[in-house]
Amino acid sequence: MNSEIKKQILNKIKEYDKIFIFRHIRNDGDCVGASKGLKRIIQLTYPEKKVYLIDSDNAEYLAFLGPEDEPVSEDEYKDALGIVVDTASEARISNKNYTLCKELIKIDHHIPLENYGDIIWVEENRSSACEMIADFYATFKDELKIDTEAATYVYTGMVTDSGRFKYEGVNGETMRNAAIMLDCGVDTEKLYAHLYLEAFGYLKFKAEIYRRMQITENGVAYIYVDKAMQEEFNLSLEQASACVGALDSIRGAIAWMVFIENGDEQGSIRVRLRSRFVHINPVAEKYHGGGHACASGATVYSWQEAEQLLADADAHVKEYKDTHEGWL
Ligand code: AMP
Question: Which residue of 95, 204, 220, 290 shows the fewest CB atoms closer than 10 Å?
Fold first, then answer.
């Protein structure tokens, strides 16, 4: 699929001596895996090229994948190719120096709210951007080089963004691409230990989540994680936000979300919305957000607005349940 665009991307990579790779703010396993994996594949294949990944935004739980490059002067970007992975809109690109690059390529699997870049490769049905990087490698495997390190980065994003190969979007193609990465020697025991073991104290926080969780009339499960709760369990914003997965297995709750108080001057509250069967992104898009059909993010600016979002989500789920069968 999209072989012409992929060919154009490979040609651009060949054409430039210097390449900068970019990803989204509030990074996750997919954008870190895709950016580091692509960087490593390019570097292994073309050792004479300079390939940079400069990003100071780093998630604690992904620290095991290693640090990024040190910043370079703005002048360095000017004659370079930029490749942005896993980022739907320009506002979400983390390193703003992407604007300085001579040409820009977008590789993404989010629903495109906006387009940017000189070459755009978007496949919103892919389960991860890393799956696209694996596919890119597989398409040109006679030319490109890969090793265990690169495959581990790419496999990390495939695993995390697909909920361990569980979410919508996972298909035979995903598994074939994952198999190519595994064949490169990924140590899955170690990888899963890094990604999924939880601290004792964090499980206590989860217990509190289960104690406090609520559900709307039509089946939207939710929890408010305000500053007081974050302080009680000594959680960073990132740790507090990670609890959305705790609500994902309630029968009949086909949408679920967490509201995390950011503690900034604007009183902003991060909302992480998830769903199965029903698509939840239309609700996110009403509240300064977006993302994927069944995994989106949004921001509200008061608890009152949070309640409004919940009411919208509840109505959205009701409409779905009234008009569809077979959901659980
Ligand atoms: P999150 O719950 O923040 O991990 O978001 C779920 C998905 O939606 C991720 O793929 C994010 O990149 C995306 N997303 C989160 N917030 C926004 C936003 N404000 N606009 C567009 N996409 C978003």
Answer: 204
